[in-house]
Amino acid sequence: MEDRSSTRFDLLNEENYFTWKYRMEMHLIRKDLWGIVSGTEPLWDKRARLAATEIILHVSDSQLPLTRKTMDPVRMWQILKEYHESSG
Question: What is the pTM of this model?
Answer without folding.
Answer: 0.71
